[in-house]
Amino acid sequence: MTKVMNVAMIGGGFMGKAHAMAYAAMPMFFWPAPAIPHRKVVVDITDGAAEEARRRFGFDEASSDWRSVVARPDIDVVDICTPNNVHAEIAIAAAKAGKHIICEKPLARTVEEARAMTEAAKAAGIIHMVAFNYRRTPAVALAKKYIDEGRIGRILNFRGTYLQDWSAGENGPLSWRFQKKIAGSGAVGDIGTHVVDLAHYLVGPIAEVIAMTKTYVTSRPMQQGGVDKLGASEKSADAERAPVDVDDEVVSMLRFAGGAIGSLEATRNAWGRNNFITLEIHGTKGSIHFNYERRDELQVMFADDPADARGFRTVYTGPAHPYGGGLWPIPGLGIGYSETKIVECFDLFSAIASGKQPSPNFEDGLLTELVADAMLRSGESGKWERVE
Questions:
Q1: Residue 331 CA to chain centroid, in angstroms?
Q2: 145-163: average pLDDT
């Protein structure tokens, strides 16, 4: 009989919605499921917010005291969906309590926090995962399969972007994502780390970077109310303003440990770009291109194609591709953000069932944080910085 595992989710906002949906849906997609996630307790900053999240997301109980919840013997998995400033404290406490952990990205605000979380998780012997869900997109997993099979040969170059426009307007509110004490960094940690994770997944460790960082909007209106709006839906030119002390954009060149070179660009100030995650990888035998806004498609070119057939072709992901057996039965029916979270949930509980660490785990999250730290250092020094 499939084991039922009780989940305590800390944070009931946008990301909590995505995770709660995945817990409900995962067994429907991947059956027999490796385990049945049971939505036991949801925690938020006030009793009222927690109770609203409980009713909305289908949890048994609500609480505003995460410390008592993670210590409960009936909790198997702790899910951290909070702002970055409390990731380390919650994760370390959960690890010491022997709970398996999934933590939203970035793993932490700093290298020191990420290292402490990693060491605590390893010492506890628990399963740990950091939620870089974009690598769970079937087309990205298919790109990984082609690369591992040698279909594009030795990798020469990686080019990755993550472009958004939700904070391009200067009157978007001062989300916690614009405050260094909470977020740790701006575009580097918020979206740039997603590209770093994809680069690590597909190409390998980044060894050295040289980066430019830029803050375009230096102050923003104080946010009204406690719900984070990501700057997208509330504009207020008349509200009291406060300083922005994180980066809005990063542009970086990359040197990989395996010899490849590359580039990365991440910004939240690109008008017209919604969730524009792209990657292009060139090898000695072909190339791969992916655009998340067309997430069911992978563009591939193989150099050994006949001369009259050379060029990029479009592969529409479906049942024959990674995770395809659990998703939709016809290629091109379309997956969304929610399905990447369902796949992430499946991989987490598969890891718990097998006792083998998933990827990306906290060690991978620490490596990504080391790259982010090198980019921030390079943005200040203007020099190549090693990923220590």
A1: 25
A2: 98
Distance CA 81, CA 216 (A): 28
What b/e string do you get for 78-104 counting C-beta neighbours within 10 Å, with b at 16 or more? bbbbbbbbebbbbbbbbbebebbbbbb
- The runs of H, that is alpha helices, within the chain are 14-29, 47-57, 66-70, 87-96, 111-124, 138-148, 180-183, 187, 193-202, 337-354, 362-381
Residue 1 pLDDT > 90, yes or no? no
* 254 three-state secondary structure: strand
Q: Residue 58's pLDDT is what?
A: 98
For residue 99, report the phi and psi dihedrals to the nearest 5 degrees: -90, 145
User: b/e for 152-168, b at 16 or more Cβ within 10 A?
Assistant: beebbbbbbbbbbbbbb
User: What is the Cα–Cα distance from 264 to 57, expressed in whole angstroms?
Assistant: 36
Helices 193-202/362-381 angle, 10° precision: 120
Query: Domains of the chain by range and CATH?
Result: 4-132 (3.40.50.720), 135-386 (3.30.360.10)
| Other C-beta atoms lying within 10 Å of the C-beta of residue 382 | 10
Phi first, then psi: what are they for 177, rounded to 5°? Answer: -70, -10
Strand 77-80 and strand 100-104: the pairing is: parallel
Are the C-beta atoms of 270 and 276 separated by less than 8 Å? Answer: yes
Distance CA 167, CA 173 (A): 9
Summarised one tens digit per residue, pLDDT across range 248-259 is 999 999 999 999
Spatial distance between the Cα atoms of 323 and 273, rounded to a whole number of angstroms: 28
Pairing of strands 128-131, 61-63: unpaired
